[in-house]
Amino acid sequence: MDTIFALASAQGKAGVAVVRISGPQAHVVSARLTNRETTSRGMQVCSLRDIEGKHLDDAVVLNFFAPASFTGEDVVEFHLHGSIAVVTAVLRTLGQLPDLRLAEPGEFTRRAMENGKLDLSQVEGLADLIEAETESQRRQAQEVLSGRLGEIAENWRASLIRAASLIEAVIDFADEDIPTDVTPEVSSLIDRVISDLRAETAGVQIAERIRSGYEVAIVGAPNVGKSTLLNTLAGRDAAITSEFAGTTRDIIEVRMDLAGLAVTFLDTAGLRETTDEVEKIGISLARSRAENADLRVFLAEGPAELHVPFQKDDILVRPKADLRQVKSGSVSGLTGEGVSDLISRISKVLQHRSARAGVATRERHRIAMLRAESALEKAQALLSDRSEQYEMVAEELRTAIRFLEALVGRVDVENLLDEIFASFCLGK
User: Fold this and answer.
1) The pTM is what?
2) Cβ-proximal residues to 46 (8 Å cutoff; 6+ apart), any chain
3) What is the C-alpha separation between 72 and 151, in angstroms, rounded?
4) At the top level of CATH, which class does the domain 218-354 belong to?
5) CA 202, CA 181: separation in Å to the nearest integer?
6) Could you tell me the CA-to-CA distances from 43 to 17, 39, 78 in Å, in that order?
7) What is the torsional sign of CA 108, 113, 115, 119?
8) In this prediction, what percent of the chain has a pLDDT beyond 90?
9) What class is the 148-203+361-424 domain?
10) Where would I find the beta strands (DSSP E) of 250-294?
11) Tens digits of per-residue pLDDT, 95-112?
12) What is the C-alpha separation between 361 and 204, in angstroms, rounded?
């Protein structure tokens, strides 16, 4: 493969910048710039020089030998002074060397996957970790990056391989004396995997919301203080406030870290009957976004004033607490009264939902698991017809395994044969 290089740290000025080189010529390139041969893994401080021998920078040079590196290849890292000029000069020098090219986006991670250092779900976890903004996103990404999803999928795969091997033993060795009826064990294995798949699939949507962020819509009639409340939550003037009804016509969004969760608050247009065509568009958009939000905060005197269906966990608070004798159950964005209690209520609802999140975090995972589950349900139904349908049961099991290959490595026929001979000691 080509030897590639790129800036591995963020663009711009910094105390330290990291330039990574990966591929068969990595240590040759390092020796060229440092004038030192590298024979073992380790760290050293070297003077880097360009192709004309001129000094570029003094750098900490880290050497890794395949397969003990992030990419699984020979890798060298230059830890430079984080000057834009220094980084530019080093990258320019590397670009002038033969058999070396600039890495494509994500190519280091792709090589790590191709060399068996990461599976596909771990690659996704790494991307999520880099993008993580909140504590819950960090924890979730770290769990996926650790290979937890791959471990779970591997356990499912092992169970299905066992079930398939039992079925294949009956089919392929029909003339042999199979000591027991394999149907009960196969049925039990399938039931267990189906149950696990259903549980994990149910948590994908919540896990996705942790990753992408929850949406909380602030809903109510015109001039009840929705925009003022949003500004108070945001700690800045994110939305225009006015004493005139209909000021908010578009959706104003403010993203926040709420108790470790990424939450986007939506300030929607005041819901009312109007003849203003532009305001009508805003109200229609407000209804749609509010109904599709993860949670709604209604500013209203009571249920009779709601213009959007009240759903489970939604919160109803009375507006303008600053003008009330009895403050309980009300909120004021103007004075901040009741805002802390409201934030606490929202946080508890979303944290409770987040507790039900699974390890699988993406729609791709959910679809693969649903398809595997469907194939296993067909296999289970066919088992009731016993040996006459064993060929079809085996095919459905293979189909389920193929769908799980989206999460784990490919399964080949040797896995089945190994299991058959180990379990039944059948071999001639």
Assistant:
1) 0.76
2) 33, 34, 36, 58, 59, 61
3) 20
4) alpha beta
5) 34
6) 16, 12, 10
7) positive
8) 30
9) mainly alpha
10) 252-258, 261-267
11) 999 889 998 888 888 888
12) 5
